[in-house]
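testing teh design pipeline on a random one, pls ignore if ur not involved
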Protein backbone atom coordinates (compact mmCIF):
# COMPACT_ATOMS: atom_id res chain seq x y z
CA UNK A 1 0.00 0.00 0.00
CA UNK A 2 1.34 3.42 -0.93
CA UNK A 3 1.26 6.07 1.76
CA UNK A 4 1.78 9.79 1.21
CA UNK A 5 3.06 11.55 4.31
CA UNK A 6 4.21 15.01 5.27
CA UNK A 7 7.28 15.18 7.49
CA UNK A 8 8.41 18.23 9.39
CA UNK A 9 11.22 18.39 11.89
CA UNK A 10 10.43 14.89 13.20
CA UNK A 11 12.57 12.94 10.78
CA UNK A 12 13.13 9.24 11.28
CA UNK A 13 15.63 6.73 9.91
CA UNK A 14 13.75 6.42 6.63
CA UNK A 15 13.93 10.16 5.97
CA UNK A 16 17.54 10.36 7.13
CA UNK A 17 18.56 7.86 4.45
CA UNK A 18 16.70 9.90 1.82
CA UNK A 19 18.52 13.11 2.74
CA UNK A 20 21.84 11.74 1.52
CA UNK A 21 20.38 11.49 -2.02
CA UNK A 22 19.08 15.08 -2.18
CA UNK A 23 21.25 18.09 -3.08
CA UNK A 24 21.84 19.94 0.20
CA UNK A 25 20.53 23.28 -1.09
CA UNK A 26 17.02 21.79 -1.31
CA UNK A 27 16.92 20.04 2.06
CA UNK A 28 14.82 21.76 4.71
CA UNK A 29 12.25 20.84 7.36
CA UNK A 30 9.37 20.45 4.89
CA UNK A 31 9.26 17.17 3.01
CA UNK A 32 6.37 15.17 1.59
CA UNK A 33 7.08 11.53 0.80
CA UNK A 34 5.47 8.66 -1.09
CA UNK A 35 6.20 5.45 0.74
CA UNK A 36 5.55 1.80 -0.14
CA UNK A 37 6.05 -0.10 3.11
CA UNK A 38 9.42 1.01 4.48
CA UNK A 39 10.66 2.08 1.05
CA UNK A 40 10.50 5.71 -0.05
CA UNK A 41 9.49 5.86 -3.71
CA UNK A 42 9.19 9.64 -4.06
CA UNK A 43 9.72 12.88 -2.19
CA UNK A 44 9.34 16.59 -2.57
CA UNK A 45 10.93 19.38 -0.58
CA UNK A 46 9.14 22.71 -0.25
CA UNK A 47 9.11 25.92 1.72
CA UNK A 48 6.23 28.08 2.85
CA UNK A 49 6.24 31.88 3.00
CA UNK A 50 2.89 33.40 3.89
CA UNK A 51 0.34 32.37 1.24
CA UNK A 52 3.02 30.84 -1.01
CA UNK A 53 4.50 27.36 -1.16
CA UNK A 54 7.59 26.98 -3.31
CA UNK A 55 8.16 23.41 -4.44
CA UNK A 56 11.95 23.23 -4.47
CA UNK A 57 12.78 19.67 -5.42
CA UNK A 58 10.97 16.49 -6.48
CA UNK A 59 12.88 13.21 -6.32
CA UNK A 60 11.21 10.07 -7.69
CA UNK A 61 12.64 6.58 -7.32
CA UNK A 62 10.07 5.17 -9.74
CA UNK A 63 9.04 6.08 -13.27
CA UNK A 64 5.34 5.69 -12.46
CA UNK A 65 3.80 9.09 -13.17
CA UNK A 66 0.77 8.23 -11.01
CA UNK A 67 2.97 8.18 -7.91
CA UNK A 68 4.38 11.61 -8.73
CA UNK A 69 0.85 12.86 -9.47
CA UNK A 70 -0.36 11.55 -6.11
CA UNK A 71 2.58 13.15 -4.32
CA UNK A 72 1.93 16.58 -5.84
CA UNK A 73 -1.83 16.34 -5.24
CA UNK A 74 -1.16 15.38 -1.61
CA UNK A 75 1.02 18.48 -1.30
CA UNK A 76 -1.79 20.59 -2.79
CA UNK A 77 -4.24 19.19 -0.23
CA UNK A 78 -1.81 19.79 2.63
CA UNK A 79 -1.25 23.39 1.55
CA UNK A 80 -5.01 23.95 1.31
CA UNK A 81 -5.39 22.76 4.92
CA UNK A 82 -2.72 25.30 5.93
CA UNK A 83 -4.54 28.10 4.00
CA UNK A 84 -1.63 28.39 1.57
CA UNK A 85 -3.26 29.54 -1.66
CA UNK A 86 -0.40 29.55 -4.20
CA UNK A 87 2.05 26.80 -5.08
CA UNK A 88 5.03 27.67 -7.25
CA UNK A 89 7.28 25.20 -9.04
CA UNK A 90 10.38 25.80 -11.14
CA UNK A 91 10.01 23.84 -14.34
CA UNK A 92 12.69 21.78 -15.93
CA UNK A 93 11.64 19.15 -18.42
CA UNK A 94 8.23 18.24 -16.97
CA UNK A 95 6.09 21.29 -17.70
CA UNK A 96 3.33 19.21 -19.32
CA UNK A 97 3.06 17.05 -16.18
CA UNK A 98 2.36 20.09 -14.01
CA UNK A 99 0.03 21.62 -16.61
CA UNK A 100 -2.13 18.46 -16.49
CA UNK A 101 -2.59 18.99 -12.75
CA UNK A 102 -3.55 22.64 -13.23
CA UNK A 103 -0.36 24.69 -12.95
CA UNK A 104 -0.14 27.75 -15.21
CA UNK A 105 2.71 30.07 -16.27
CA UNK A 106 3.70 32.54 -13.57
CA UNK A 107 3.76 36.24 -14.33
CA UNK A 108 5.59 38.18 -11.64
CA UNK A 109 3.59 41.30 -12.41
CA UNK A 110 0.64 39.58 -10.72
CA UNK A 111 2.53 39.08 -7.45
CA UNK A 112 5.04 40.85 -5.26
CA UNK A 113 7.59 38.03 -5.28
CA UNK A 114 11.15 37.73 -6.46
CA UNK A 115 12.37 34.47 -7.97
CA UNK A 116 15.67 35.77 -9.30
CA UNK A 117 14.16 37.28 -12.46
CA UNK A 118 13.47 33.87 -13.98
CA UNK A 119 9.75 34.38 -14.54
CA UNK A 120 9.47 32.14 -17.58
CA UNK A 121 10.90 29.19 -15.63
CA UNK A 122 8.06 28.96 -13.09
CA UNK A 123 4.51 27.66 -12.96
CA UNK A 124 1.89 28.51 -10.35
CA UNK A 125 -1.21 26.80 -9.04
CA UNK A 126 -3.99 28.58 -7.18
CA UNK A 127 -5.40 26.07 -4.69
CA UNK A 128 -8.83 27.72 -4.71
CA UNK A 129 -9.02 27.38 -8.51
CA UNK A 130 -7.73 23.82 -8.26
CA UNK A 131 -10.52 22.73 -5.93
CA UNK A 132 -13.17 24.66 -7.91
CA UNK A 133 -12.21 22.77 -11.08
CA UNK A 134 -14.82 20.13 -11.92
CA UNK A 135 -12.22 17.34 -12.12
CA UNK A 136 -11.10 18.09 -8.56
CA UNK A 137 -14.40 18.87 -6.82
CA UNK A 138 -17.71 17.12 -6.33
CA UNK A 139 -19.70 19.78 -8.25
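output:
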Amino acid sequence: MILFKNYGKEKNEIISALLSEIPSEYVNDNVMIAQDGDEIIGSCFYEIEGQFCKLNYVHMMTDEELIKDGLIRTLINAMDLLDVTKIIVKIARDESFYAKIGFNPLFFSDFMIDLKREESNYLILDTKDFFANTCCSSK
